[in-house]
Structure formats: C-alpha cells, structure tokens
C-alpha cells in the first residue's frame, strides 16, 4: 500500500516545475513517467501512454523499452510519477501497479488551480508464513 512520505530531498524546485509543465500539457488527461538519476542530476522521462482524465495505461513493451534504455544509459530509476487532474491527492487502487517499477511514487494533483506534489512510498503487507 502507498503511504505518504516526508522525504523532501527527492524533488528539486526545477524538477517540480518540469513535472507541473508535463501535467499541464497533458490536460485534461493524466500524464505518467519516470524520475531518473544519472550522476548527480535527476530528470523526468515522460512515458507515452493512453490516458483519460481518470486513468492512464502504458503498454508493457513501452515500459520495458524505457527500463532497458535507462539501464543501457547508466541511469537509475528513482521514482514513478503520474497526475490526477481532478485534484484527488491520494493514489487510487489502480495506482498500485506503479509499485512494480518503483517503491517511490510522486503524485501530481490540482489544488486551487495549481499543481501540487505528494511523494508516496510502497510498503508490502506482511506475508503470512505457512508451515507445510
């Protein structure tokens, strides 16, 4: 499940600006992508998607190609991100799928006409141990 994070060092003001620009350009639909690090710098990698105002779908091959390009380019996936143009500030159950790519997720949401961000971290429910 996603839990709010108090991590503030992930998002520089420049990175937040770039995320907001992408979210704004995608309106009225959602946007999606990766936050990656190469050396000391972080940047966004928008991912092509089929998006509506309340859902985003990325073809699995597109995700694999992006992950391979990052690996070949020596970049590290730091977080996933996507937007909620309707202003919902919490991940939906559909957003749990982002945890397959990163345990950190940045949600952009509309608040008072501006884009706000919230960082979430994924924690798996405790696994039950079964004796055989």
Automatic annotation (TrEMBL):
It holds the Pfam family Prok-JAB. The lineage of its organism: Bacteria, Bacillati, Bacillota, Bacilli, Bacillales. Residues 15-101 form the JAB domain. This is Mov34/MPN/PAD-1 family protein. PANTHER family: CYSO-CYSTEINE PEPTIDASE. InterPro entries: JAB_dom_prok, VirAsm_ModProt. SUPFAM superfamilies: JAB1/MPN domain (SSF102712). Keywords: Hydrolase, Metal-binding, Metalloprotease, Protease, Zinc.
């Amino acid at each position: 499940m996603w839990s709010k994070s108090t991590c503030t060092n992930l998002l520089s003001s420049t990175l937040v600006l770039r995320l907001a620009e992408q979210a704004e350009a995608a309106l009225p639909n959602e946007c999606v992508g990766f936050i990656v690090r190469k050396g000391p710098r972080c940047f966004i990698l928008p991912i092509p998607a089929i998006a509506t105002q309340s859902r985003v779908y990325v073809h699995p091959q597109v995700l694999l190609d992006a992950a391979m390009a990052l690996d070949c380019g020596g970049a590290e996936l730091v977080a996933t991100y996507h937007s909620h143009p309707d202003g919902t500030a919490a991940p939906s159950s559909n957003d749990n799928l982002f945890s397959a790519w990163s345990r950190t997720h940045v949600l952009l949401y509309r608040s008072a006409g501006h884009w706000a961000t919230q960082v979430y971290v994924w924690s798996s429910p405790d696994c039950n141990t079964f004796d055989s």
